Amino acid sequence: MRHFDPPPRKMEYAAFVDKFGGVYEHFPEIAMRAFGNGLSSETDTPEGLAAAMAEVAAALDHPAKLKLIGNHPDLAGRLAIGELTAASRSEQAGAGLDQCTPDEFLRFQDLNETYKAKFGFPFILAVSGKTRGDILAAFEKRIDNDSETEFRAALSEIDKIARIRLEAMAG
């Protein structure tokens, strides 16, 4: 099992928030609250810190959860014009979203617009290890879900993204 160096439980508040505040897209409050809840030897691993941060995210009220979901970029959207965080850019490029054909790009744009019109927030998917085809298939499958199902799915995918980011940070 991999551990962070230095261990999060031994970090000062400012250093912890600086290092882990971006794990949840534009939502450093999750890292701040996780630190405030207290850290233990369990949070010195990516899995343990991911669980602690997911617990904080789950405890957010509904408006804060909507904000958290809304902080995420459209898939294959802003990638083309460079308006992503470094982590999002890397994740989307790793899935090949920076290499969409014109037809794929138009399909992503159409699905993004349709999804946001239906649910009021962007489609969220942990794209690590997925291909453009996998992502489009997931998009097309989930767009038929009801709002509550998609709300829960988005939050679950955000927790997966955070865990993947934490694993990458541990090396």
Number of strands: 0
Catalogue the unreliable spans.
none
Under CATH, the topology of the largest domain can be stated as UraD-like
CATH superfamily of the largest domain: Oxo-4-hydroxy-4-carboxy-5-ureidoimidazoline decarboxylase
The best one-word shape is: globular
Q: Total domains, how many?
A: 2
C-alpha termini separation: 11 Å
Q: Classify the secondary structure makeup into a structural class.
A: mainly alpha
Please work out how many helical segments DSSP would assign: 8
Strand content: under 5%
Percent helix among the residues? 55-70%
Radius of gyration: 16 Å
- Name the CATH class of the largest domain: Mainly Alpha
Question: How much is the average pLDDT?
Answer: 90
The appropriate CATH architecture of the largest domain is: Orthogonal Bundle
Largest sheet: none
Order of helices and strands: HHHHHHHH
